[in-house]
Specification:
By secondary structure, the chain is mainly alpha-helical. It has helices at residues 28-36, 79-86, 95-111, 128-133, 136-144, 151-165, 169-173, 180-186, 193-202, 211-214, 221-224, 233-251, 264-278, 281-287, 317-320, 334-349, 353-367, 377-391, 400-422, 443-459, 461-464, 472-481, 493-512, 514-522, 525-540, 550-565, 569-575, 580-593, and strands at residues 6-9, 23-26, 45-51, 65-67, 73-74, 255-256, 261-262, 311-312, 315-316, 426-427, 430-431. The strands form four sheets. Strands 1, 2, 3, 4 and 5 form a five-stranded antiparallel beta sheet that branches. Strands 6-7 form a two-stranded antiparallel sheet.
């Protein structure tokens, strides 16, 4: 139900009214009943309470409001209550139509004078009409119109904001404090084109980081954009690379390509989380149109559908390597993509379960939760909101370091809770996670990263041939970990697939450049490849049906690679070392295999 917001005091009570003379809080509907019963009238003093923290809607909590003693006025002087409760004539149009008319007047005032001269140089100071509407109090009102139920009003408000902020850097820089990006992402309508244009014009111009971070062009797009906390990075690239029209089309649709994965379930997940983050503020706004959103940053939102995806330099690798569905998908910057894949590969292989456990325990301490007894997402969200408001740098300049710790802790715990939910570990409405299950390398992601390297080597050999392959230590580590077990023991499909793709990458990288072959030999790769080939051949000896045999596929790539390496003196020397005789036998068996 709507929160109780309004307080009353009898007409003629001295200001500020003594505590004993104040009644409330009341809802607008309750004021209407009191007015009809003659308990209050137009001269009754009223004021609205404001909430410093917005509760979750499902809490249905009352009270907790702060009363501004300097805002007491007769009810007849409060426009909202005057129009809704004291007007005897019916309104000729709906409140939404009234608001649209007001927005139209403001838009005409803002556009009456040009913001730039004939050379395209902005006027300074900015035109008076735009300057008035871009005051913080006015921007809050316009931003909150995006919470309206009227699609036409949302379009008009977004269009007005776009015009107000054009060539208006001072107003742009702190626009995020109005909550407009939360409201825009929470909008569930299908008419998203005008809102998308507003987002496109403003999302990279928000001063929501410290001075160093604000000007760091080397940061990922998701870190430079204020939308990085709510949208997957791929969606922000769509907005930047293809423009607002394409973004609006994707945002309200269903797409599953190498460049974007998005559907109605993901949008519903976004809207639901933003509604939870906003709490009951929209209900407060419905009771008091003069309410102003008390900004709280949204922690980075996790999407369960993307949990197994690997996003590198504008592409989802799982789809990009799926050549059956997406043959020869255009890749704009293959070298940058390859570097991004290598960095992600290094990061994934460096993950240790012990680090994940320590991170989760520390995160619980930071936000003040007890992991042993479990906690719900709602409890975690409440802890985050309270701490984030307390330490946000816009309110507490000394709290930036703590604020960043709080954000990181929330992301760690939400990730752990998402995994716990996927495993069905829920008791009594609480979600639990075992510390032993936190962290560690995800071998499915490693497989996708190796497949992506193979694909890039095959598609862009001349471009990659100009660079030396720098990751043979990682590749040899993967191959050693993927060695097939002795004959008679089962080789699981994931390990076998990783073995095949690792052997293929060894061959494909050497094929790109002779420098890579020499680098592989220097890293001790010959002996690793020989040992791997020997293990593969031991398992395929006497095989009657080679179809689908992973060891056979891996052995084929190994034989190709060793045959190529044999053209180099250093490789031949390595093959003719202490185990040269065994290597000769292995090479002969490989030739027979081929």
């Amino acid at each position: 139900s709507p929160p109780q917001t309004w307080y009353t005091a009898s007409a003629g009570t001295p200001l500020p009214p003594p505590p004993g003379s104040v009644q409330g809080p009341f809802r607008v509907a309750e004021l209407a009943e009191m007015l009809a019963a003659g308990v209050i009238g137009g001269a009754t003093l009223v004021t609205a309470g404001t909430a410093s923290v917005y509760d979750d809607v499902e809490d249905d909590k009352e009270g907790g409001l702060e009363v501004d003693t300097g805002m007491w006025r007769p009810m007849a002087e409060v426009r909202m209550l005057k129009w809704q409760l004291l007007s005897t004539a019916g309104l000729p149009v709906s409140p939404a139509e009234h608001a649209r008319a007001a927005v139209s007047v403001l838009k005409r005032m803002v556009t009456m004078h040009l913001s730039v001269d004939s050379r395209g140089v902005p006027y300074h100071p900015i035109p008076f009409g735009k300057r008035v509407v871009s005051e913080p109090a006015s921007l809050h009102v316009l931003a909150q119109l995006l919470l309206a139920d009227s699609p036409a009003l949302v379009d008009e408000a977004a269009s007005l904001l776009d015009k107000v902020l054009d060539h208006n850097p001072n107003a742009q820089a702190k626009l995020y404090l109005t909550g407009v990006f939360h409201f825009a992402m929470a909008y569930a309508g299908s008419n998203f084109g005008v809102v998308a244009r507003l987002l496109h014009a403003t999302h990279l111009r928000q001063n929501f980081r410290d001075s160093a971070g604000a000007v760091a062009s080397n940061l990922p797009l998701s870190k430079r954009s204020v939308l990085g906390e709510s949208l997957p990075e791929a969606m922000i690239h769509i907005l930047e690379n293809y423009g607002p029209e394409r973004f609006a089309e994707v945002f309200v649709g269903t797409f599953d390509t190498p460049e974007v994965v998005w559907n109605s379930d993901m949008r519903a997940h976004l809207v639901s989380n933003l509604q939870q983050h906003l709490g009951d503020f929209p209900l407060h706004l419905g009771q008091n149109m003069g309410a102003t959103y008390n900004y709280c940053p949204l922690p980075t939102l996790l999407y369960p559908m993307l949990a197994k995806e690997v996003f590198c330099h504008e592409y989802y690798l799982r789809n990009l390597v799926d050549t059956a569905r997406f043959p020869s998908w255009p890749i704009r910057e293959p070298i940058s993509l390859f570097k991004s894949v290598l960095e992600a590969w290094k990061t994934e292989l460096s993950k240790e379960a012990s680090e994940g456990q320590a991170s989760a325990k520390e995160a619980c301490t930071v936000v003040g939760l007890d992991a042993k007894n479990g906690f719900t997402e709602q409890e975690l969200r409440k802890k985050y909101r309270a701490l984030a408001r307390k330490y946000h740098p816009d309110r507490n300049p000394q709290g930036r370091e703590m604020f960043e710790k709080i954000q990181m802790a929330y992301e760690v715990l939400m990730g752990a809770l998402s995994e716990a939910k996927a495993r069905g570990e829920s008791k009594g409405g609480k979600l639990f996670f075992e510390m032993n299950d936190v962290g560690g390398t995800d071998h499915e992601k490693v497989l996708v990263l190796v497949q992506a390297q193979c694909m890039l080597c095959e598609r862009f050999p001349s471009e990659l041939g100009e660079y030396k392959y720098p990751a043979y230590p990682l590749l040899l580590r993967v191959l050693k970990a993927s060695f097939p077990p002795p004959p008679g023991e089962r080789l699981d499909e994931l390990t076998g697939s990783l073995l095949v793709q690792g052997c293929k990458l060894a061959y494909a990288s050497c094929l790109v450049s002779p420098l890579n072959a020499e680098e592989l030999v220097e890293e001790g790769g010959v002996q690793v490849l020989l040992d791997c080939l020997t293990a593969c051949l031991a398992r395929v000896d006497g095989l009657t049906s080679p179809a689908g045999c992973l060891e056979l596929a891996a052995g084929g790539w190994l034989a190709h690679c060793l045959s190529g390496l044999a053209h180099f003196d250093s490789a031949r020397s390595a093959m003719a070392g202490p185990q040269g005789e065994a290597a000769d036998r292995t090479a002969g068996a490989a030739a027979t295999l081929l």
